[in-house]
Write a structure and sequence with these properties.
By secondary structure, the chain is α/β, with parallel strands linked by helices. It is 30% helix and 16% strand.
Length: 723
């Protein structure tokens, strides 16, 4: 069934409905229409890194961790697992008459907002700070969810459209102001890719306003760009209770009826919230007509037909036993392996050799924490393996493992009646009695997350700064002062100022929120069963760098992310070490700059946005990169290609143009060909128009982001070409 067939069937069905029945179908909790054979359907389901909030499921690393894999194929496999389990659960639940929230076939994922400011609490739901990386990983996720069969396997959703990256506390009344250059260079590319290339089934509007209009009733975003330029044919859904914000917080309307009418007329088909309960009243007041309601209902039932809800289809037979099956858990473990980033390895202390250890100290509030495995928007695993448990399981009876909580996650003490730092002495004792210390610090979903979902000292879910909670700062200092070798495992979904650890700890692993059995993977990496290979999908800053950035409320990109940051970061975007010694031995571009840009200019002259997008896809250049692994360790690496066009419109530091995750064996020298898409050679001018505006460019081939440092600090992971 194609979309036209689904729309024809949807139109026939909707035209049999009364006005009241149509109106009721625009709610996220759409009721049944028994006389027409329509079951109740709840549109609200989540699948950010596994089927969420609906019982048992395979729980993958949080989205920001998956982004650290820089692995499109893996992301697509993850999404295929999620879609299979969502279908299996839907089939089983509906057979029991359960059609409740979080149990449907429309997953409100992925989140492709740009993680522009390190304080944003929801940044760990995203795929990082770079528009290109977000676009590629995002479209892979959508393809994995939706599949390529006659019916949609699952309906994916690109959210939150658009220009939405905090602050959480004021999102219901905030106006995010962005100029055309930032819009088309940073905030819109991922959505464009997911709509045009990924054919994403739905788009969710954000809470805030953008340039004066609410995102769920925005003329430019919804009418001019989404439905106009990009010819989006799926359905548009509001964020939850965002339409209510029109009259309660944004004050662009005065009543629920006016808010419902405004959203509906601008093209918001589905209301997550309660405001569309006022649609019939709005109709009675003459604010909308029947065709407005009918059009939205047809869009929604097109999706339901496309999902095969009303006929037998190939996905109806997916069995519940696929949920958390061994194959799915294996993919989740592979995902965790690829997401963990090695930031420091002084004296090659890692990997550890358990035959040379008598006692390991495992310390910290995240060492034995299930929450630190999960991130937010997560499902429920049938088994969890914390870092402490992973290390205990790995060493068995061969090595003694001592454990101390060390501190509360963010409070000054663990026991109510105790004095401050009541677990600190124990941590010091454990460290002193150990050969090596694994110190597990960081945050969890109670300290960074969505406004309203958290109950932490930071209130909104955003961070006030980039520092660890004070109790953890004191713990880190006390453990380092023992003089024992210390490996810091940072479990957090955002940039944390690890200046002290960078200076004084022996090794640092950025573990993110690694999934339900992430502790096993951390242990495998600590002991060398696998070489770490993740790369940072965002810049790690010093806390003092916040003073150089625009305010959190300022949506200009100046000073933000690796593309515009003018300082020296703590760790750069794209950074990550391995246990191997891999060097770039050559890099050669297949086409000269003049011929490339001439072809691209022709494509850019197309009047139609979709035709331009398609034409640009046909123009590519290939860069051949030779790598050599002089170590005795097999490893994955990520080849990163950055381009900086010689134009006043180019980003301050250039931009990611292409990347490729590769595997290279010990002692191997191998060549890899990487396509550089045409957009890499373009820039966005002040009017938001993509143009050719240079006669030359600098191409950087790197294994560690835009900095001249490799595992051995000898520049072998960094090559520049002038073209």
């Amino acid at each position: 069934m194609d979309r036209k067939q689904a729309r024809d069937l949807a139109t026939q069905l909707v035209d049999k409905m009364t006005l009241e029945e149509m109106a009721e179908q625009l709610r996220y909790d759409a009721p049944a229409i028994e006389r027409l054979g329509v079951n109740e359907y709840n549109w609200w389901s989540e699948g950010l890194h596994g089927v969420a909030r609906a019982g048992s499921a395979t729980v993958f690393p949080q989205a920001i961790g998956m982004a650290a894999s820089w692995d499109d194929d893996l992301i697509e496999k993850e999404a295929e697992v999620i879609s299979t389990e969502a279908r299996a659960k839907y089939n089983a639940y509906t057979s029991e008459g359960d059609r409740d929230i979080y149990k449907g076939l429309t997953l409100w994922s992925p989140n492709v907002n740009i993680f522009r400011d390190p304080r944003w609490g929801r940044g760990h739901e995203t795929l990082g700070e770079d528009p290109y990386l977000t676009s590629r990983l995002g479209v892979a996720f959508v393809k994995g969810l939706q599949g390529d069969s006659d019916h949609r396997k699952i309906g994916a959703c690109a959210k939150h459209f658009a220009v939405h990256s905090g602050p959480e506390a004021i999102r219901h009344s905030f106006d995010a102001t962005a100029d055309k250059k930032d819009m088309w260079e940073t905030y819109l590319p991922a959505f464009e890719t997911l709509v045009i290339e990924g054919d994403v089934e739905s788009v969710m509007g954000a809470y805030n306003r953008t340039n004066g209009e609410p995102c769920c009733a925005n003329t430019y975003l919804m009418e001019d760009v989404l439905r106009g330029m990009w010819k989006f044919e799926g359905h548009f859904v509001s964020d939850c209770w965002a339409v209510r914000d029109f009259h309660e917080n944004h004050k662009v309307t005065s009543t629920p009826e006016e808010s419902a009418a405004l959203a509906l007329k601008k093209g918001c088909d589905l209301n997550c919230g309660c405001t569309y309960r006022s649609i019939l009243s709005a109709y009675d007041q003459g604010l909308i007509d029947k065709e407005d309601i009918r059009k939205a209902a047809i869009n929604l039932f097109t999706t339901r037909y496309f999902l095969g809800e009303f006929e037998d289809n190939e996905f109806n037979k997916i069995d519940y036993k696929t949920v958390e099956c061994s194959e799915h858990l294996k993919i989740a473990r592979k995902a965790a392996e690829e997401t963990i980033v090695l930031l420091k390895n002084e004296g090659n202390i890692l990997p550890l050799d358990k035959s040379k250890l008598a006692t390991i100290g495992v310390i910290g509030p995240n060492a034995d924490s299930r929450k630190a495995l999960m991130g937010n928007y997560h499902g429920t695993a049938s088994r969890y393996t914390t870092v402490l448990e992973g290390i205990q399981d790995y060493v068995g009876a061969d090595v003694r493992v001592l454990y101390s909580l060390g501190s509360h996650l963010f409070l000054d003490k663990e026991e109510f009646l105790a004095k401050e730092d009541d677990r600190l002495a124990e941590a010091v004792i454990v460290a002193k009695n150990s050969d090596v210390v694994v110190l597990c610090l960081g945050l969890d979903e109670t300290l960074e997350g969505e406004e309203g979902d958290t109950g932490n000292s930071y209130a909104s879910g955003d961070k006030n700064d980039l520092m660890l909670p004070p109790c953890q700062v004191r713990l880190l200092d006390a453990v380092l002062k023992t003089g024992k070798p210390v490996i810091v495992c940072m479990m957090a979904g955002s940039s944390i100022d690890m200046s002290v650890a960078k200076e004084k700890a022996d090794a640092i692993l950025q573990c993110w929120y690694p999934g339900a059995q992430g502790g096993k993977t951390v242990a495998d990496i600590l002991f060398g069963e696998v070489s770490p290979s993740g790369k940072l999908p965002l810049t790690f800053y010093h806390n003092s760098d916040l003073e150089k950035m625009p305010s959190f409320e300022d949506y200009s990109m100046k000073g933000r992310t690796y593309r515009y940051f003018e300082g020296e970061p703590l760790y750069p975007f794209g950074y990550g070490l391995t246990y191997a010694d891999v060097k770039i031995v050559k890099a050669l571009l297949s086409k000269d700059y003049a011929s490339l840009t001439s072809q691209i200019a022709t494509a850019l002259n197309k009047a139609d946005a979709i035709e331009t997008y398609r034409q640009l896809e046909t123009v590519s250049s290939v860069i051949s990169v030779g790598l050599t692994n002089t170590s005795d360790v097999d490893t994955d690496e990520v080849i990163q290609i950055y381009v900086k066009n010689d134009s006043k419109y180019e980003t301050e530091n250039g931009k990611l143009a292409a990347y490729k995750r590769v595997h290279i064996k010990a002692g191997e020298t191998k060549q890899f060909d990487i396509d550089i898409p045409a957009r890499a050679w373009t820039v966005v001018n002040d009017e938001g128009i993509r143009i050719i505006d240079a006669n030359k460019a600098k191409v950087t081939v790197s294994l560690n982001g835009l900095n001249k440092c490799s595992a051995n600090d000898n520049g072998a992971g960094f090559v520049e070409l002038e073209v």
